[in-house]
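Discussion board: Methods & Data

I've been asked by a reviewer to show the raw model output for two of the constructs in my manuscript, not just the figures. I'm not sure how much to include, so I'm pasting the format here to get opinions. Each protein appears as its amino acid sequence followed by a line of discrete structure tokens. Is this the kind of thing reviewers expect to see in a supplement, or should I convert it first? Here is construct A:
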Amino acid sequence: MAAAIDRAFADGEHLLVQAGTGTGKSLGYLAPSLAYLLEHPRGRVVIATATLALQAQLAGADIPAAVKAAEKVGGRTVTHAILKGRTNYACLHRVIEGAGAEQDTLLGAAEVAEGLRKTRADASSVLGAEVVALREWARDELDAEGAGDRDDAPTHTAAAWAQVSVPVRECLGAQQCPFGDVCFVERSRAKAREADLVVTNHALLAIDAMHGNTVLPEHDRLVIDEAHELTARVTGAASHELSPQQVERVARRCLPYLDDDLAIEFLDLGEILTDALADAPLERITDPESPIVATLARIRDVARRVVSQANGDEPEAKQASAAAKEIFDVAEAMAALKDGDVVWVSERERFGRWLVAAPLDVAFLLRDRVLSQTPTVLTSATLTIGGQFEAAASSVGLKRDERADAGAEPDDDAQAWRALDVGSPFDYQRQGILYVADRLPPPRRDGITPEALKELAELVWAAGGRTLGLFASQRNAEAAARHCRAELPGQTILCQGDAQLSELTRRFIREPETSLFGTLSLWQGVDVPGETCRLVVIDKIPFPRPDDPLMQARQNAVSRSGGNGFMSVAAAHAALLLAQGSGRLIRRVTDRGVVAVLDPRLKTARYGGFLRSSLPPFWSTTDPEVAVAALRRLGPEAKAG
């Protein structure tokens, strides 16, 4: 992997690398990155990750160790920095100028907040204490010339953090803000501009692309880790939302700066949008003459007038105007119903209906604004789909006929790319079994079947707990937990929603015979080597919801262009998640266990072979007795005997 990246950096080509769990993937790209920087003292390499966890691991452990080793070899210290989006840092203007009266207490605010949480005080009291604690912490960070990074802050909720941070739109800018010279964001960007190696995230990479490459410092090589997440993260960064609550909240902020007529008109728009959404179907909006589009046009026009009128010099007026400008921009974009956008009505149980707009495709954005700017390495443990790299390449804008290691003849506009699968140190055939329950009935929409629940309980019993259950929905996870708790009263079954997911995961790791059931967030984010996880159960092939407007639109677009929309979008999505989910089982060379898929379609459906080719090459069986016997041999009773 390191040799291939070294070549790609030298030749200025793009490279896709699939590096299985356990290969030392981070070192695989850090070594050639540091070598490149030692050879090019004026160069800069940016590394973009999907998760804050990997970002922190790189900045706190992997990079310092690699830099120290590189210094011994090259005689020069490579500098490095971490760069996040604006809302990950405390805003000093918000903290100091926006702070209310502080609460006098002999205890620190963080201790007060923790005490309130433990006594289960009302939410407003906890929120208030958390905000005070965050303000104290931000001031301490200022005095200590710290980073003001949310990851270092006292325990808090998202609502509390929103009181001490500021959205991009509402930032006054370093030149106009009274705290511009000590701003945490400006400090982080200044440090990044001086660093040789910068670690950022996919979302900030997307924002940089959408804003003309003005967010990240200039760089001449780019590494994208967790690249299987890239298109989803870029799609999220390029998406917009609009709700009645949002319109009403911004209208109230703007009231002091508007005349009475415009203020009333702006306030009424929240209720008008609520009524329009109530009458609209929960689906994609395609008719430019629909009532919801007319409502969006009205919001756009009123918001334009608000932006023009709310133009005072004081910071609060500027921030209110910026919030109204965001309402204008989003409403304008949604009302346009551009061919490249998907706009739909969605619904949340707690907050009701709202509007969402997302790009139909982000491949052109990535090709034109990222890959065309910088030779790029994209790497992940799961980058092939159906055993091929072409789907991943296409998703980021690379074309099949541009693949240099397949004999492509590049022209002037080509983005030459190569691909490499470095394999895995694991012997999957000997370490794991894939059991497909092909005798079960197919999954149904109204919940997990009784037959699947019975099979699940037997497998968990055979494993002696030690089970990670990955379910297609929260309803299925909860039904499975109830059933297993009733059938296996001596075992501990944790279920997502019982407590914070981080606490449940810690218990699962700490208590080997405990099982953990959950949904999508467990498919990719849990690393549990050893005795704790002997069985991974997947209840259903994780196809996207058939009523997901964005996935529907993407499938239709592929079909219209002559492709197979189902295979290119739905099956590819499922294959990626199956690979990630089944990859939870084997995390070390000493791990052993079973991946059990309770969906017979993995074996019986025409697309089953395509999905199986994306999984680790486990030894496979459809015989439940074989799976049960294998789990019993790995169980605690067998070890004790």
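Construct B, same format:
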Amino acid sequence: MPAADDRPTIKVAAVSWPGVELEPVATPPAADGGKPTRSRRARLLLAGGLAAALLAGGIGVGAYAYAGDVPRGTTVLGTELGGRSRADAARALRAELERRAAALNAPIVVTVGEKKAELKPADVGLAIDVDATVAAAAAAEAHAVSRLVGSRAVEPVVTVDAARLGAALRKAVGDQGREMTMPTVIWTDTTPKPVYPKPALTVDTAGATDAVTAAWLAGQPVTVPLVEKWPATTREEVDRLVTELARPAVAAPVTLTTEGGSVTIPPAAIARSLRFSTDDAGKVTPRVDVKRLRTALGGKLAKLEVEPRDAGLTITGGKPKVAPSRAGRQVDAAALGPALLAVLPKSTDRTVTAQLKPATPELTEAKLAELGIKERVSTFTTRFTGGLSSPRSQNIVQAAKDVDGTIVKPGETFSLNAHTGERGYDQGYQDAPTIVNGKLVPGVGGGVSQFTTTLFNATYYAGMKDVEHKPHSFYFSRYPAVIESTIYWPQLDFKFRNDTPHGVLIDTSYTGSSITVSIWSTKIYDSVKTEYGPRRNITQPKTVYLEPGPNCISAAGGIGFAQDAFRVIKKDGKVVKREKFSWRYDAEPRFICAPDPGA
């Protein structure tokens, strides 16, 4: 039997106890008008005769009937458990299960909608709980004579991992099913737009669990129908949210007053912060997202608040130096959200009073000291051309500035896209060559991939956990083969996880021709090195002529190849990790900005 665990289970138990009538009753005649059936007479004679025999032999009826923990005449899966102790009954039931092992382990044929699938019982946690079944068999109490001559069949107690079974059934549904369209209200500027609910077409997990369990015990196939499952919030309720809340909310501004002064919240800021959240059951709940409201108000709250500042680290003289934290004073966000939500449906008296409360920084000097950021554990440098005046170089430096000084706590995952946000003109990025669909074209933020590669290598050689990265489609000799990464908002990201017990500081620096990223923490590995396999499947570049113009960028081209790289991490003189990284580079065409001479 599988070991017990704490997974959610469904237990199915059913007990059948046929009544045994020993008192004289009016007996209907047989169909042919003759005497009562032999079986009824035989049961009465057996009961009386056996009782008399036991009494004559000096044995009490009660002593015989109540021998053992399980009432006599009790069977499970056709196996007699009656008259046995619980331990003996459990042994007998396990022996029966061993005899039925082939049938109980056989795949269950399930028809879901119009598709058939096979479920392995072990994969969905189907098993018979022997101890619980014996307990159910022993639990029912009966009259002494009933125990003496009666019989009953007890269904086994079955355990099943409902989550795994549900997942297997949903997989079997495949393209027959459809996802639920969750109701909500969305915004186009300050215009609320209803999103109406639509039902999912899926399986009823609870009913399917019972059906599959019964089919498994019977060794029979089972059909699980597809059913519609509707979200909890109806179309009418969505319309009511629009009419009674969303539209009035943006009909006029709201005044926010504090002891430090007042600010006006315009309808546009209300629309950006009034969210209609939908849970897994499809229930819509309106709320005010104060963080979004703060962003939408821009610097307005800065007149009233003092933002707290976390403690930080800078590298001075080759050592980390603490930049102290600072307490702040901010609007009580926990109270402001519900208070603002309460006045939004009103056409008058649209004023909210909020308190300014002390705001403590998340990272204080004491907490920073506990992170153990004390030494440089890795550093990596890449070089670029064109000096600091070129748009590409400025994009690299801008990304470095955005990331410099970032602290990643133990267990946290760093995302470059999440950290910089969308890299646009307003954020200081410029147009520079970038690869789109296999061609170099001008694009805002071109060159940030070089910073991404530099950051990736710094975290790679610090031994950090690689979560997400994607090498370039073409090989560039300024980067290490395979161990490099591109980035593109929002589809491609670079992520690493700090899987050490210490904090990590990302320190960036640059010159007129290079970018450097260093990782500061507490060193836990002796060394991190890369071993390369040979290049293989080498392909040569083609020559491609492009239409001349300001958007055409020529390229010398390069070979394509596949290669493996192995990150080898040593600790205490032994290899503790050997991780394989593989990539296939396309041959970069030789792009010429000129008419094709052969055309």
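Answer (T.O., handling editor elsewhere):
This is acceptable in a supplement if you add a one-line summary per construct. For B, something like: The chain has three domains: 15-22+35-106+119-161+168-173, 235-369, 371-593.
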